[in-house]
Fold this protein.
Amino acid sequence: MTENVDIVNKPPHYTQLDGIDCMDVIEDLGLDKHFHLACAFKYIWRFNSKGDLKNNLKKSVWYINRYINFIGTNGIKFTETSGVREQINNPDHYNKSKYECIDLIEKLGLYKDHHVANAFKYIYRWDAKDNPVENLKKAVWYLNRKIELLEKEND
């Protein structure tokens, strides 16, 4: 018996974490107000479960770079939002949502890949710690580094 899959409303590559939906996390983090970052986030979320791994990472890089350019062109400024709280266990910048960053990294299996996990982390906390544009550039750096490694593997 085949299970009915709702590819439009609940595609399996976006609901792989014990029923946690990618869009729920995007909305909870407030990334839905930043189209480019929401797209980058979803490509990392599904990087190993739909489509070509390398292309998913390249798409994420493209969206982040496009957003950095958008910020610069429009003179948008951000301020750090994290308060003073426990900075070792459960720091604010990794708890901006009901889903803690490390929990998502572990449930998605991203911990198995240092580069992708770090990119995910920098997108997750992009506007909550330090310089938002710098955080996005760090995410791009990690994704580009992973893409380079994948390309070397295919040579």
In short: The mean pLDDT is 81.
